[in-house]
Amino acid sequence: MELRELGQSGLKVSPIGLGLAALGRPGYINLGHADDLEHEYDASAMQDHAAEVLQTAYEAGFRYFDAARSYGKAEQFLSHWIADHPEQNDITIGSKWGYEYTADWKIDAEVHEQKQHSLERLNQQWGESQALLSHHLNLYQIHSATLESGVLQNEEVLNRLRELKESGVAIGLSVSGPEQSQVIEQAITIQQDGRLLFDTVQATWNLLERSAGPALEEAHRQGMGVIIKESLANGRLTNRNRSTDFAAQLDLLQTHAQRLETTVDALSIAYVLHQPWVDVVLSGAATSEHLLSNLAATKVRLDEEFETAFRAFHEDAERYWKTRSQLNWN
Fold first, then answer.
1. Which residues in 175-210 are b (16+ Cβ under 10 Å) and which e?
2. In sequence order, what are the residues at sequence separation of 6 or more whose Cβ sits closer than 8 angstroms to the Cβ of residue 54?
3. Alpha carbon of 105 to those of 31, 42, 67, 89, 110: distances in Å?
């Protein structure tokens, strides 16, 4: 994959990156996650598995890797892989602060992560991320900034982020929920010395959830790098989605994937890659096989027939996020 700049951050990224949400902890909401891990949850085994997928990604041209403090041992697994491959020094790494992993390595935990957008949490987790990733950490993002958390009005937090930016780390935010657009619009107004504080924004945008599109396009126009997460809607935009309510949509996806000689997952990711304001799309693959299937998206050429067929494919944002909230940890 040919590298590109992540907005005006100065960071180089591949068009498809690897998100470690499904690799760093035994439980996640992606459909079929337990099968991907073959129900093997020993931390050492999971570290070896993550290293295999990370190496497959690197050899396939992936150069952006995305973690978070709440992704279990994701930063630790990433750190070990980097230490084992010191010659692979051309990667860009982003991580996030704001959520604490609370599942204690259990899949049936009552609470898997706990959110707090305070200065104390930022300083604590910055230290933890630094201890594991050191100078390899290029981008630090607020994890799921929302209007409700008030993090974008917290001057103590914003000033600390300004300090980190002045030290040479790019600063970003990720957003989630039906109010993604409003949070992005708010982030664009926050400046430092006449320039945007936030170098990047990471949001959910896919065939089913397109509500943040205009706001992301404006963020891109303002110079922010745009990272797209959940391009497969946590597996809902793959053959694993056997919900009877989705049968007609899946049939449409399969029909066009066959017509364009690709797979459903590659087709879905290709649609996101096709947007001119997108810098990098995250694959959330938990196996090398799925990773390489996702990568095939770079070879898919969408046509007018596809655009016409999928023009009205998306869901209402409130419905999308309600469905997502009901996905089972597995």
1. bbbbbbbebbebbbeeeeeeebbbbbbbbbbbbbbb
2. 18, 23, 65, 77, 78, 81
3. 19, 9, 17, 30, 12
Between CA 111 and CA 11 the distance in angstroms is: 35
What is the spatial distance between Cα 309 and Cα 73, in angstroms, rounded to a whole number? 41
**Residue-wise pLDDT tens digits, 282-293:** 999 999 999 999
Q: CA 100 to CA 26: how far, in whole Å?
A: 15
Two structure tokens written together for 268: 């879905």
pLDDT in tens, 145-192: 999 999 999 999 999 999 999 999 999 999 999 999 999 999 999 998
Mapped to the 3 state alphabet, what secondary structure does 97-160 carry?
ECEEECCCCCCCCCCCEEECCCHHHHHHHHHHHHHHHHHHEEEEEEEEECCCCCHHHCHHHHHH
Q: How many CB atoms lie within 10 A of CB 273?
A: 18
What confidence score (pLDDT) does residue 300 get?
Answer: 98
List, in sequence order, every residue forming a beta bridge with 100; answer none if it has no partner.
114
CA gap 221, 11 in Å, rounded: 17
Residue 1 and residue 61 in contact, taking contact as beta carbons nearer than 8 Å? yes
CB atoms within 10 A of CB 169: 18
* CB atoms near residue 305 (< 10 Å): 11
